[in-house]
């Protein structure tokens, strides 16, 4: 029953899913407009808000359902590259990262595991998609594994055909530059069934379900 | 933050939300067609299935999110009426009722509380909607309260203006008879904002959010 899932992947009309340059000041590389309709408060459930339960929020709330581990790229964890500087960096999220599970961070520069009181832990691994996925599945306790991004990591897992479910939110904006999500994935739709709905916010939610995997 | 919510209320094109006569053989009174697109496996999360995650299933999965107690009408609990017969009836659901929380059952004929190992308990109360809602809120531990149906109970709570959120699924079938959901609710839309989406299954999901309650 263990699936590998991607949630809340925001993609512009021209196919960008992040900005070009991630910095400390711009965690998503100047592509903040991609996330203008996102409501991170509901990733662990619609009951976390008093605001109206919209279709968008219902879709966002799938993020945390039955997830036992996450895999993310290094760039989602921080703006640094190369050897880790001795700067105490523990990710963008402060003392309470929202993951609540083990998180495996792909990097060529492993470092010591970080553990947080809320159940989140960051494990730094230099591994292929297949290998880190096995690590994450072992850690997930029978629950699903989320591929958390960024877009380059999602693309890599899609190219390796390791994704069972992908929730894309198409945002009707034109970014003009950034990290492209659909490169090297021509014909991806042949491996998936896709259902789309559009909501009153202007978002189009696409649910990609991998066909015919046991 | 505590809300009173209704989920997965299936309504036919002609406004019926259950069949006429509930019997042991027909728990929903011959209106089974209403539930033809329903997938009860996902009420505690989309990860409970290996089948594709459709928009319908994503919407159904809101049912269990952050719920601390349910209120249901007697007819949802069983087909009996009047004094409870000494027949050992403990509901339709066997040893593992799917609720996992306290459930308050409205009846003029109170009986002893039933408790199950999975966290479900059935409490039988003869009370007004306002009073049973207070009981349920006290039992919910800061989480939300679900009004579980049947349709007469939902209608009663809507008439009393006690519902904050209502998820209706309009099913494109014509039942011709049954329990009507919209009677005595003319102008209900004035108290709510409503968002609708239609999915590839033919269902239309409506999310009704109460306007302007603190």
From TrEMBL, chains A, B:
Molecular function terms, GO-annotated: 5-amino-6-(5-phosphoribosylamino)uracil reductase activity; DNA binding
Keywords: DNA-binding
Sequence ranges assigned to domain Bacterial bifunctional deaminase-reductase C-terminal in this UniProt record: 8-184
SUPFAM superfamilies: Dihydrofolate reductase-like (SSF53597)
Gene Ontology biological process: riboflavin biosynthetic process
PANTHER family in UniProt: BIFUNCTIONAL DEAMINASE-REDUCTASE DOMAIN PROTEIN (PTHR38011:SF12), DIHYDROFOLATE REDUCTASE FAMILY PROTEIN (AFU_ORTHOLOGUE AFUA_8G06820) (PTHR38011)
Protein known as: DNA-binding protein
Organism: Arthrobacter livingstonensis
